[in-house]
Amino acid sequence: MSKKVSGFSKLNKTQKIDWLLEHYFQENETFKEILLSYWNSNSKLQQLHDEFIENTISNFYLPFAIAPNFLINDKLFTIPMVIEESSVVAAASNAAKFWLDRGGFKAEVLSTTKNGQVHFNYFGDKEKLTAFFKTVKPRLIESVADFSKNMKKRGGGVLDIQLIDKTATLEGYYHIHCTFETADAMGANFINSCLEQFAKTFKEEALKFDGFSSSEKEIEVVMSILSNYVPECLVRAEVSCKIDSLTTPEFEGHYFAEKFVRAIQIAKAEPRRAVTHNKGIMNGLDAVVLATGNDFRAVEAGVHAFASRTGHYSSLTNAEIHGDTFRFWIEIPLAVGTVGGLTSLHPLVKVALAILQKPTAKELMQIMAVTGLAQNFAAVKSLITTGIQEGHMKMHLMNILNQLNANTVEKEKTIAYFQNTTISHSAVIAFIDSLRN
Amino acid sequence: MSKKVSGFSKLNKTQKIDWLLEHYFQENETFKEILLSYWNSNSKLQQLHDEFIENTISNFYLPFAIAPNFLINDKLFTIPMVIEESSVVAAASNAAKFWLDRGGFKAEVLSTTKNGQVHFNYFGDKEKLTAFFKTVKPRLIESVADFSKNMKKRGGGVLDIQLIDKTATLEGYYHIHCTFETADAMGANFINSCLEQFAKTFKEEALKFDGFSSSEKEIEVVMSILSNYVPECLVRAEVSCKIDSLTTPEFEGHYFAEKFVRAIQIAKAEPRRAVTHNKGIMNGLDAVVLATGNDFRAVEAGVHAFASRTGHYSSLTNAEIHGDTFRFWIEIPLAVGTVGGLTSLHPLVKVALAILQKPTAKELMQIMAVTGLAQNFAAVKSLITTGIQEGHMKMHLMNILNQLNANTVEKEKTIAYFQNTTISHSAVIAFIDSLRN
Question: From CA A376, how far away is CA A278, in angstroms rounded?
Fold first, then answer.
């Protein structure tokens, strides 16, 4: 029986699942039942989710959680977080509480410019191309006037377009570098529509440009697409306090501050450390990206490329001791939206935005940067004091217990036992075995 | 009324939501109802999901979809994908079908070594440190024998530990670079537990080492943690075919192949393009990462750092025309697991792994790399032919219709109307308005 299939997308959801049942589940109904047990009982709500993308057969649950006590620019936030990894939300909450008592987080949007390119081949005389671009530039901007109207009303639109010569890197390769302001939208559809129109007008006008020879007129556009590299869409978040006030029952403030700064220096110096260091930042940041219906692949790509911009992949956060003050900060590129896309479609995204008190895109950039910074603070704090495993395994204990199908009594006994004992997967198995035998 | 809160994690789920209702929802019950409408009616299943992480209040739905017709190393796969972005699953399915007729995908795991470091400060004589490390190395490996037992049974364990001098970059900074094989597990907990034990033994033994002066004995471990940079855990996926067989009714094979290779050259040359190019790869890859219960932040960080390894952020895929053959391939670092973590816990992850015919970690690496390559093929194919917006907006049309609360008749009429008309957000609004007035 062949697993090849034609016209699959035209089957309805149940037919798709039945096809899986026949070809991949060996008629084992259990898997079908699991898929169906995740359908929402409200069929209209379920249909909405089915139509987000193609070939949907169920809803994948990711935990929707909240981290309270984030003081950002003197306003208190509770942050919605969607993430599957245990201990991240607990760590964010702990960091928020820690800094709540020390003045909270300061955040500031440094810039909001997005960009995209029309990539094209041109093997003719460069001066003619420059002259042509100068002539055609107003016409290019005019060509998108129609579908820029809505964006303009919201304070956005095309900012500028420039001709960039990349022939030193690749023969005959130029692009039109276009910059945009997209207000509260992430703006991908707007930008891509503009770029495709620029490309069309650019080619048409080239055919009519008298300065070109007949071969020069045949400019070949390779592709037109926004860039997720957005170093001109930058947000900064910071915490600082007197070193003395870092002292807690666990550690002395100066010792902590110095070890913390050293840990950041190491993440600056060593790419193998920097990658995991930044991954920790993204644990917090992506959880907000997901909860607010933004695109984490876009954010991840832009952030990590930014981390490598000096030619050496490095930490996105910085820390310093200046006199009697400890300072810890991040600067990070984030192109995100609070309108458009899933934001007005996914009911839980609406809830998340309500929890965040209906932020603008700029406010959301600040909230995300703060969550990333808080997460990094919590991770580095754990690493340089107790080690990461102690806290992580405590949080992970419940997952291990669920794997072992532990009942409520077994769970309580295990949690009590491991209060002061090192948790490992095998130690938990052994303890549960001892309870059961 | 203050939004500060103490002991929040100890409230139960309903109490947490009621606290939100009071402090953030202005007693608007609608938001509470939405949160509750996403709870699973099976309370035992719901409790399982609640316990994955901390402070959970609901389940965030991401669409769970499937893309059939992936021929990988002559075996047919249907790939489970979890993603919120429209058009990704359709694009993956199209690319799979395209290559199904042209020999399918070949994939190969090149290496599976994971790594982690014990980062420490030492300002003494380097030769003494080298001598100490030589002495202590067997004892370090011995110290983790106990909790390596299970991993060894599965064919994994510690591979090697090495002393690395980083003092040229940062004064007094060394690390112990440790390599691991973790079989079918991603291995984060195992690796971190080993590293923390190495650190403990290393410090203890240093205090006893006669070769050190009293200050040299006080080695300060800054932190011990795995690295998500895994260039020694590498998988390769490839498609190739005769250029003639690329010809379709849409385009001629040679023209397509040359334009495709040019698009890849541009993504190699220009970081602004490379970032979005690689983002497209991750659209497909992360959807499998999520569906199989793996950690997309870890994968993203490792992949993008790898893309910048030459000091210049660049495309992860390559394409060439060699004689009459077109070849397109990817090499990408992926540390993922098919046991441990969420894989044995999340019922839908179990379904996803069943759809993938219970892959080993190596097979999963191949499947993920193929999905990334397929996604990139589909994206570049769109970009260099019709443009990205045409296909994307067709897929996105249903989302726009749902935003406008279109009913079934309105949806059908709109889809029919936009079959041959350019879709934009405002054009759809205008058309729906025309239907309604």
Answer: 8
Chain B residue nearest residue A264, CA to CA: B222
Structure-block tokens of residue B19 = 């606290």
Tell whether B107 and B121 lie within a shared domain.
no
Instruction: Say yes or no for a CB contact (<8 Å) between B189 and A357.
Output: no
**Per-residue model confidence as pLDDT tens digits over A231-268:** 999 999 999 999 999 998 888 999 999 999 999 999 99
Task: Quote the CA–CA distance of A252 and A258 in Å, as a whole number.
Answer: 10
Structure tokens that stand for A414 in this block: 């295990």
The complex scores an ipTM of 0.94
Angstrom distance (rounded) from CA B428 to CA A229 = 30
User: Distances from the Cα of A55 to the Cαs of A316, B104, B414, in angstroms?
Assistant: 38, 21, 21
Residue A3 lies inside a defined structural domain of this protein: no
* pTM of structure: 0.94
pLDDT by residue (tens digit) across A317-354?
Answer: 999 999 999 999 999 999 999 998 888 899 999 999 99
User: What is the span of the domain harbouring residue B36?
Assistant: 8-50
The token pair at B279 is 């983002």
Q: Which residues contact B296 (CB under 8 A, 6 or more apart)?
A: A286, A296, A300, B286, B289, B290
Pick from B266, B275, B345: which is nearest to A305 by CB? B275
CB A221 within 8 A of CB A207: no
The answer on A348 and A216 residing in a single domain is no
> Same structural domain for residues B369 and B403?
no
Interchain contact, B301 vs A283, CB within 8 Å:
no
Q: Is A343 on the interface with B (CB under 8 A)?
A: no
**What type of residue sits at position B289?**
V
Both B199 and B284 in one domain: the answer is: no
Closest-CA residue of A relative to B191 is A389
Exposed/middle/buried for residue B251 (C-beta within 10 Å: 0-12, 13-18, 19+)? middle
Instruction: Quickly count: other Cβ atoms within 10 Å of residue A358's Cβ.
Output: 11
Whether B243 and B161 map to the same domain: the answer is no
Residue A56 lies in a domain: no
Q: Is B298 on the interface with A (CB under 8 A)?
A: yes
CA of A305 vs chain B CAs: smallest distance (Å): 7
The model's pLDDT over A183-200, given as tens digits with 9 standing for 90+, comes to 999 999 999 999 999 999
Determine contact, residues B37/A42, Cβ cutoff 8 Å.
Answer: yes
B58 is a domain residue: no
Enumerate residues 202 to 241 of chain A having a beta carbon within 8 A of any beta carbon in chain B. 220, 222-229
Q: Cα A274 to the chain's mean position, in Å?
A: 17
